[in-house]
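Batch manifest line 199
LIGAND: S-adenosylmethionine
JOB: complex structure
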Amino acid sequence: YLFGRKKATEVAHLVWEQIIQKGDVVVDATCGNGNDTLAMLKMVTDDSNGYGGHVYAMDIQKDAIESTSSLLDQTLGSKEKERVKLFNICHSKMEEIVPEKSSVRMVAFNLGYLPGGNKSIITVSDTTLSALKASERVLVPGGLISLVVYIGHPGGREELEVVEAFGSGLPVSDWVCCKLQMLNRPLAPVLVFMFKREK
Ligand code: SAM
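JOB STATUS: finished
ARTIFACT:
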């Protein structure tokens, strides 16, 4: 019912809220227009005292970084904006920008192309897989890898298969992996969640 009423990204946000704590470090692996980045920043921030964590947000498109930056400028004060770090890089390189000693609580992917942007710049299976492996390495126990996977465009289903194969291969002793798919809307985005167990 919930999934039918809300957008897939909003359902993902409901799951994130269960995992993310104030002060956490989280990664937006595909920041696009910045909507997810903003949602993550709110989740790591304690409004009562301004205490908060950091969002490391990246996108392979310069236009997307600019779009995210302008959304943050419109919505946040300069102090808050400082807690978002924006990088124009491929998400397979996330380990180069996330500080080594930080414990990352979540890495989130919203795959596909930038809405309203260049549809030929799109996430692809190879680098998505490398980025998933990097996410596995940077994530703290009790953390989450979250993916919204679009299957309506060419290559989308293949990318979903790669994501599913990665999740299926994670050891059951350390991970809980699941997906949420609309049975009566076959082209709707698929949500995949990989929860890393607490030690
Ligand atoms: N989360 C975004 C938002 O809230 O607006 C939407 C993301 S959009 C569906 C997917 C984004 O992934 C695009 O902006 C695209 O440029 C980016 N992208 C594609 N390949 C990438 C890669 N290898 N590394 C990082 N970002 C990539």
